[in-house]
Amino acid sequence: RAVYAEVCAACHQVSGRGEDGKAPRLRQSPYVLGSTDRLARIVLHGLTGPLKMDGIEWNMDMPAYGGSDADVAAVLTYIRREWGHGVAPVPVSEVTAVREAVGARPLPWTIGGLGG
Description:
mainly alpha, two-stranded antiparallel ribbon, 6 helices, 7% strand
């Protein structure tokens, strides 16, 4: 909760509902509730370019989060379990595996590059 409040809530809001012109919702988002691998890639490396959700096209940049694997796992677990989601937590080992598999990626992902 602390990492989310410090890093993510400014754009995605404390409520997880997002804000027009800033960031899409995380509450009931298929990106939050779907693949933990894909979600970890977004947080670890950032996201750029168009994303369509709820009939709205978002074309902004989400910066990479430079926190530890434990902090990334904690924030992913928080957003997957908050707002009534109740999805399984994300183990630190999954974040570490994604980081090792991808390596030092210099550019953010695009939705097409993530397969979503």
